Amino acid sequence: MSIQENDALAARVGELLLAREARVAVAESTAGGLISARLISVSGASKWFDRGLVAYTMPSKSDTLGVSIEFLREHGTVTPAGVTAVAESVRERTGADYVIAESGMAGPTKGRTSRPVGGVSFAVAGPAGTVSEELQLEGSRVAIMEQIAEHALEMLVAALDSGA
Fold it and tell me: For the chain, is the Cβ count within 10 Å smaller at the N or the C terminus?
């Protein structure tokens, strides 16, 4: 799903964050800003959206998101451990109540990792801890990016609904 008027999922995130008087930050890689754009498209987002960070390379993930290159080399960037470290680092650095982080392989080529095209890792860090997931998505590069944004918002809603 691309950015559109009346994005019900993004609006739901906003409602849940407002009800908790909480703020969210986003650490994106493969989605390239689509998660943040969907959230910011909701009227009133300034009450609950803190910031969106896009870091695409390993050095930028270290500099911008605060995870050491050594850790990322050892654990990988497209892994639950990698995105968990990113989400927790961004939460600590920004003071946001919740952080959603993602990293994946949108294709069409594999790049330098053994991860297949469409492999994506997600993490949501919140007051009750961090949850992570891995998915194998299919489709074009843009379709994978849109699926990443959709799943990231679904994960955040699930965390907020559960009271995490």
Answer: N
How buried is 91 (Cβ within 10 angstroms: 0-12 exposed, 13-18 middle, 19+ buried)?
buried
Q: What is the pTM of this model?
A: 0.93
Delimit the domains of the chain by residue range.
8-161
The string of DSSP letters for 64-119 reads HH---HHHHHHH-SSSHHHHHHHHHHHHHHH--SEEEEEEE---SS-TTSSSPTTE
Q: Which two tokens stand for residue 25?
A: 């930050």
Question: Checking phi first, is residue 8 left (phi over 0); if not, alpha (psi -120 to 50) or beta?
Answer: alpha
Query: Which pLDDT tens digit goes with each residue over 85-138?
Result: 999 999 999 999 999 999 998 887 766 666 788 999 999 999 999 999 999 999
CATH number of 8-161: 3.90.950.20
Residue range 132-157, pLDDT digits in tens: 999 999 999 999 999 999 999 999 99
Alpha carbon of 80 to those of 38, 58, 120, 124, 162: distances in Å?
A: 23, 16, 9, 11, 20
In whole angstroms, give the CA distance from residue 72 to residue 75: 5
